[in-house]
Amino acid sequence: MRQHEDMYINRVPNRNSPPAVLLRESRRDGTRTIKRTVANLIGLPDEMIEALRMC
Question: How much is the average pLDDT of 43-49?
Answer without folding.
Answer: 94
